[in-house]
Amino acid sequence: MLNWSFLRTQAADNQPPQLGAGAPLVPDPIPPRKAKIALALGGGAARGWAHIGVLRALDEAGIEVGMIAGTSIGALVGGCYLAGKLDELETFARSLTVRRIAGLLDFAIGGGGLLGGLRLTKRMQEHLQNLSIEELDRPFVAVATEIQTGHEVWIERGSLITAIRASYALPGIFEPIKCNHRTLVDGALVNPVPVSVCRSYEQPLVVAVNLHYDLYGRSAVVKHTAAVATPEDEKAALSAHPSSRLGVTGVMVQAFNIIQDRISRARLAGDPPDLALLPKLSDIGLSEFHRASEAIDRGYNEASAKLAEIRRMQTEAFR
Question: Would you tell me which of 48, 73, 166, 304 could form a disulfide with 144, CB atoms 3.0–4.6 Å apart?
């Protein structure tokens, strides 16, 4: 005779364990989707080393970067990051001294700028030679300005080195870059913090790194009286503000600095990022590239302080 009780016992032994009487099986929770962030890395000359610190903090936290749009030094750091050369760039930046910087400058006579930039280009070629933007594993756009028309130019294909050089070709300092029948200069003339580029790529979460926000504060209109300054007045002014004596290059750079600040404020007001990282860099001069370690650390600290907010926004982007 068939032993039904034995079969029932054996079948029960083969059942998966129950959580309780009548309790349904609960599937493992599905982790929430997290949006990759698009980075808009702004211009700022020597202050731009802060971008390295920002990227270090994001990488350590496991926050994925989906694309980068960069202007000027933002294009340099962003391009090197996507090319897998951030370590080399950071080592180079931290090694800079005033003497080493002077050795990298090549003065050009009769060109469109005081510096030809060939020695800097040679250093980039050691790591980025023959690399095209299309070969990068994520979208990259370098912003430049066409000098004849004032057009904003987005370089998204072709030579990575040429795109970077065009983006940081500060007028009057570096020679303009000839590219496909266009003469290109620094992109900060038209788009210092390229949030709009990331938006055009329909990125769900845009994080901007603005290097100029704390330089001048809110713009003001000053009512002033035109009076002839005496030699004693000028001497007193220089004693109170020793840094107020600017050479030709200093005047050009400072004027460009003001332009970047005002354009950034106007463009970001109309097209704000989802989050802005604002490292405090006002005491680092635009030409003080030898202070890279300070700038990198400040960028790292600013990004680290905003990690919780970035993670929250990554999750909410898909709700």
Answer: 166
